[in-house]
Write a structure and sequence with these properties.
Blueprint: E1 27-29, E2 32-36, E3 39-43, H1 70-82, E4 88-92, H2 101-112, E5 119-123, H3 126-129, H4 136-143, E6 148-152, H5 162-173, E7 178-184, H6 192-204, E8 208-214, H7 228-238, E9 249-254, E10 259-263, E11 268-271, E12 275-279, E13 285-289
Parallel strand pairs: 3-4, 4-5, 5-6, 6-7, 7-8, 8-9
Antiparallel strand pairs: 1-2, 2-3, 9-10, 11-12, 12-13
Helix pairs in contact: 2-4
Length: 293
């Protein structure tokens, strides 16, 4: 369902469009999105090891396959160098790990020369769908340019295989934390049992459940989209019934470049001047003294 085209993609939904997050509007240069004050996203390529049918950048698929040219990258490095407020650079795509280790090292080395850049993040699905890409050469390359944080993309417990687990372990053993960003997908993972099994399985292989995204309203993805209430129901069904480390933050990616909006179930029953009535995870309520500022 995640990877095979479906005729449902041709169905028109009133709220879907090619670039609902307006990434192109926030692109200050080809391949460089500067939306948040202290971080930028670099799209290194539009090539992926798998083209997820729910991809937020499906608009890139109809273009020729490309890898960012050296002159484009030099312009990106120059922009980052000139903007000292940028402390966090995210390498994305496509999938940046589709590049050779040599090309990737050129990018990492260039960014590491910029002294105000504190961390580099890499967004990749390779550990899940192309685990053989996580070889010793790649891991050695990444290790040289720490601190690096790697965000990957498991959506279903069946994706936690021996191979994907070993790929994550190689990255972790290099001292690079691995977080997971899932997308809430109708018919794939939109129930408490599946999401709990996924997140518990991730913790068992050392991967932290980080975000659960509401599926973006991208053209051709309407059949995957659930209600926001469904996401809140899943988080409420996990909170307290499994460890806090296991519960991802449920977020809606704001339209028109408004950024990520975290949502959670409402545990506040009522407010008074010096106290609140709160609801516990089992549904019971209690009064909690609320000191004044």
């Amino acid at each position: 369902m995640q990877c095979m085209p479906s005729q449902q993609e041709e169905k028109l939904y009133f709220d879907t469009e090619n670039d609902p997050l307006e990434e192109e509007r926030d692109s200050v240069l080809p391949g460089l999105i500067h939306r948040y004050p202290d971080r930028v996203l670099v799209a290194l390529t539009n090539i992926c090891p798998v083209y997820c049918r729910h991809c937020t950048r499906k608009r890139e698929w109809c273009k020729r396959k490309w890898i960012r040219e050296p002159q484009e990258l030099e312009a990106i490095y120059s922009y980052i160098y000139q903007h000292e407020e940028i402390r966090d650079v995210i390498l994305s795509g496509g999938d940046p790990l589709i590049l050779s280790s040599g090309k990737l090292e050129t990018v990492l080395k260039s960014i590491r020369k910029i002294k105000h850049v504190e961390i580099i993040r890499i967004g990749t699905r390779c550990p899940v769908v192309l685990p053989q890409r996580i070889d010793d050469e790649l891991v050695y390359t990444l290790k040289k340019y720490k601190p690096i944080w790697l965000n990957t993309h498991f959506n279903h417990p069946n994706e936690i295989t021996k191979e994907s687990s070993e790929a994550c372990d190689k990255i972790l053993c290099a001292g690079i934390p691995v977080n997971n960003q899932s997308v809430l997908l109708k018919g794939v993972n939109d129930d408490i049992e599946t999401m709990t099994k996924l997140c518990q399985g991730l913790l068992k292989v050392g991967v932290r459940p980080y975000y659960l995204f509401q599926c973006d309203p991208v053209s051709g993805t309407g059949h995957f989209r659930t209600s926001i209430e469904k996401g809140l129901e899943i988080i409420e069904g996990m909170r307290g019934f499994t460890s806090g480390l296991c519960v991802p933050t449920f977020v809606v990616d704001g339209l028109e470049g408004q950024g990520k909006i975290p949502l959670q179930p409402d545990y506040i029953v009522s407010k008074e001047k010096r106290s609140m009535v709160l609801k516990g995870y089992k549904g019971g309520t209690f009064r909690y003294y609320n000191p004044e500022d």
